[in-house]
Amino acid sequence: MELFFGIIITIMIIYLIIKNVLKKDKVNEGKGDKISEDEILPYRVKDDFLTDAEYSFYKTLKLSVGEKAIICPKVGLKDIFFIGKQTGNNYMKYFGKIAQKHVDFLLCDPNTMKPILAIELDDARHTSKKSYERDIFIEKLYKDANFKLIRISSMSEYSVADLKDTIDGIINKSQDLPDMQINNETVLCPKCNIPMVLRKATKGQNAGKEFYGCVNYPRCKEVVSKDSEGTEAN
Description:
- By secondary structure, this protein is an alpha+beta fold.
- It folds into two domains: 52-174; 181-225, no CATH class.
- It has six helices and nine strands.
- α2 (52-65) crosses α6 (160-174).
- The radius of gyration is 24 Å and the shape is extended.
- The model is unreliable at 177-184 and 229-234 (pLDDT under 50).
């Protein structure tokens, strides 16, 4: 009996400690941003947001893309990729690997801003051992995320026609319907490659209809109609 009460008391103490820590975190939230009205912040706007090499490539890229995509320079990988729920306690491990990294250029759909293609501009810095290890990780990241990355060597001039052919092929392919995998009522998300869950629309023109949705929603908005039999996705 004493052991039982000892366990109960220990649990209560741990609960109170955790509650107190969370309360302090909430109180301290945002305190790091607090400043006095008299303090002059040292931040200034960069004149060289893009390097000369990046700006030279950007001008060619703009001519190659036209109205087919929106060009976003220097986008953080954490703003492009999300980490699936299946990682569990390893979330911070994987987040740390992308938190401080960015891609040189990201092309997005002009109507939805959905990412279409990533472009890395490789210069002399990519010859170091550290850059080599980073590049290996980046290649693996894009491959496993099933997102297209192209690498282009930095040079003084670029071919608009060649770049246009490459980009057009990728954009057109990205508009194709993904292949669904359905086995015994199990639908795998074409993006996350994990089982989707059966849901029912509650509003709109599809109200009452059943569909498969990704468990990573809203970060993954892949949807498969239950009646599609794996041939179409909404």
